[in-house]
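Please fill in the sequence for the structure shown.

STRUCTURE ENCODING:
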């Protein structure tokens, strides 16, 4: 069985959902027959590198909610994370571009250290006071080293800029596009079958905001994922060719 998880380091439900999925997987009697494949998806692909802003400011602008509503959502997410044994800072987090994190994750996959790096990036983003976005590449290099990767190789990955992607002519299937891609209760998170199947056209149900509810709403809206990048623009919200 192959389980493909489309996720972003900036997605709090992916952070919580990963813990829930791993608990369920550990209890599954045929765990040794399950292959877990992590796929890249950017929730905010239009954000420039270096464009960092507080999470609450991002939420109020993106979802049209009040600051009080955004903070309530963060508090809810903090409670959800705590229930899974995860630390979650509900105040003073920031938000930024995750493109280079996905690039490092693909490099880590080649070195057999992807899961270690994913967990470290999630922890740095959601649990640590130090910003994941405000210190440039060296912050990512430090985390890569902690995951067991060579620092010079990690710097080389980050220094090598891929071609500028275009989004007008998608050539690869779209990921589900849900911020809750890692939740084992979501029908879009665990898919079995041949490698790289086309994702379902319908999107999972959403709550009005990222932390507004622990469960999908019955009156949901359809998510609109951006087009996948062409094959000459690797990693931009999809896996590189041949992965």
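FILLED IN BY: designer on duty
SEQUENCE:
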């Amino acid at each position: 069985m192959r389980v493909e998880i489309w996720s972003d380091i900036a997605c709090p439900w992916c952070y919580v959902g990963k813990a829930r999925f791993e608990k369920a997987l550990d209890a599954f009697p045929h765990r040794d027959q399950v292959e877990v494949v992590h796929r890249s998806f950017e929730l905010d692909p239009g954000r420039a590198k270096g464009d960092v802003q507080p999470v609450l400011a991002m939420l109020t602008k993106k979802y049209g909610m009040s600051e009080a509503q955004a903070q309530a959502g963060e508090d809810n997410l903090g409670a959800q994370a705590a229930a899974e044994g995860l630390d979650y800072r509900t105040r003073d987090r920031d938000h930024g571009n995750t493109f280079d994190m996905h690039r490092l994750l693909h490099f880590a996959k080649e070195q057999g250290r992807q899961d270690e790096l994913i967990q470290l990036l999630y922890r740095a983003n959601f649990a640590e006071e130090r910003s994941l976005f405000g210190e440039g590449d060296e912050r990512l290099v430090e985390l890569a080293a902690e995951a067991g990767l060579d620092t010079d190789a990690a710097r080389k990955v980050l220094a090598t800029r891929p071609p500028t992607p275009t989004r007008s002519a998608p050539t690869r299937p779209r990921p589900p596009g849900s911020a809750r891609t890692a939740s084992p209760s979501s029908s879009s998170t665990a898919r079995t079958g041949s490698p790289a199947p086309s994702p379902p056209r319908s999107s999972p149900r959403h709550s009005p905001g990222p932390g507004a509810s622990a469960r999908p709403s019955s009156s949901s809206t359809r998510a609109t994922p951006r087009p996948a990048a062409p094959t000459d623009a690797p990693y931009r919200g999809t896996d590189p060719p041949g992965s």
